[in-house]
């Protein structure tokens, strides 16, 4: 039973990670929206990927300290000055949902609950994808990026 659950967790996490990588890399450079994205190889993206790797590795090994470490890093990133909650009400909503998912992930790790941690990780990841899609779509509709927005990075 425990081995089947672990396989489910590992397969689910890797499938979702592949979808995230495809969505992140597939759109970069193709529109003005790319100015907002954390490009592969950028310090911001490397930090996000490093934290996600800790979480995935922790889930696969049931290493709750590692899951918690990655989730805390994500939560801290969301609290940084560069995380522009004032961009729009929808962006702020996605940020709150991401932070809540991180909080659930931290709690699940502390309680050593693999399934809850897995679902919280998936929820946080869906928040990221949804928010990045919202920002790209918003920029596509406007057709341009304001000069002041060119240095803004979505986290």
Explained architecture:
With 155 residues, the protein is an all-alpha fold. The protein has a single domain (2-149), classed as Four Helix Bundle (Hemerythrin (Met), subunit A) (Up-down Bundle). Helix content is 71%, strand content 0%. Helix 1 packs parallel to helix 5 and helix 3 runs antiparallel to helix 4 (89-110). The chain is elongated, with a radius of gyration of 16 Å.
| Unreliable sequence segments | 21-37, 145-155
Helix content: over 70%
Largest sheet: none
Overall pLDDT score: 75
CATH topology annotation:
Four Helix Bundle (Hemerythrin (Met), subunit A)
What is the molecular shape? Answer: elongated
Counting DSSP E segments of at least 2 residues, the number of strands comes to 0
Number of helical regions: 5
């Amino acid at each position: 039973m425990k081995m089947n659950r672990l396989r489910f967790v590992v397969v689910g996490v890797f499938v979702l990670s592949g979808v995230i990588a495809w969505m992140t890399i597939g759109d970069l450079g193709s529109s003005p929206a790319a100015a907002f994205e954390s490009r592969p190889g950028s310090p911001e993206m490397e930090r996000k990927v490093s934290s996600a790797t800790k979480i995935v590795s922790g889930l696969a090994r049931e290493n709750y300290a590692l899951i918690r470490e990655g989730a805390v890093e994500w939560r801290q990133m969301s609290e940084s000055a560069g995380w522009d909650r004032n961009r729009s009400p929808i962006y702020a909503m996605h940020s709150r949902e991401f932070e809540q998912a991180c909080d659930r992930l931290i709690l699940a790790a502390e309680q050593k609950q693999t399934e809850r941690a897995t679902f919280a990780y998936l929820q946080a990841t869906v928040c990221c994808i949804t928010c990045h899609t919202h920002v790209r779509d918003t920029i596509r509709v406007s057709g341009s990026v304001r000069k002041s927005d060119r240095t803004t990075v979505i986290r």
